[in-house]
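Title: Request for sanity check on Cytochrome C prediction

Description:
We are preparing a figure and want to confirm that the structure record we downloaded matches what your pipeline produces today. Could someone re-run it with the sequence below and paste the raw structure tokens into this thread? We only need the token string, no images.
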Amino acid sequence: MNKRQSRIFAIVATGVAALAFVGMTLHSHTRFDDLTNAENITPEITHGKDVWHKYNCINCHTLFGEGAYYAPDLTKIAQLRGEAYLKAYMRDPSQFYDEQRHRRLMPTQDLSEVEIDNLVKFLDWVSKVDNQGWPPRPILVAGGSLNVGAHGAGGGAARGQDVRPVAAGNDPRALGEHLFRTAVPVCTACHSLQPGVTLAGPSMAGMAERAAQTIVSPEYTGSATDVPGYIRESIVDPSAHLVPGAMFSAEGTSFMPNTYSESLTDEQIDQLVAFLETLK
């Protein structure tokens, strides 16, 4: 290829690439409203976005993979944490860390209740945006891993979806362990299986023994009569009994999401109970 041919090739290639870029940009703009559920944007959500910018949250966190990469990506945080948890965290992040052990880095921003409410609404709206599996990297939240490409806005163990691992066969305990790592919101985002490792929620190590002690305690406020029943109740109705003195609840509401009865089938919940019952 001589210089003239090289010059023509470069010009043509640049022109084709420019046309493709402009075409894709125009196409994207025609899809933005549908992908972002723009019809659901309220003044409160808009104010929540302003709060996000006002307090420079992007200096540490990312949305859709864009930001400082210093703290976890929050694109799907509203699908991993309940509203009560997010509000309590924003009020006082220090309550969620032992500064001597974890070296708390999240500053207390002194947000007003209105700012907190609207920021949570903004993050909830963000979590429902069809982000086409982006960013494609795993997101770490409190020691758990969520692959956005796989779990996105509607991924994971949705009702009726087969999440059975090939190696697990029909053993409900093996299927339950798989669900523990793949259900949405993913259990490992808040719970460790290691003794003494407390994340956003308590460690599941010794779950069966604690359940047996709890249901015979005079302070127990739930309706379960045995260990499997208590574990099931903890999954489908986490606010039925709040452990006295624990930091995993606020104003009589557990931080744990109460949506598993909708996102999991009864059989899947039974499998999850079977697995957790083995953690003695």
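Thanks, this matches our download. Confidence is low (pLDDT under 50) at residues 138-168.
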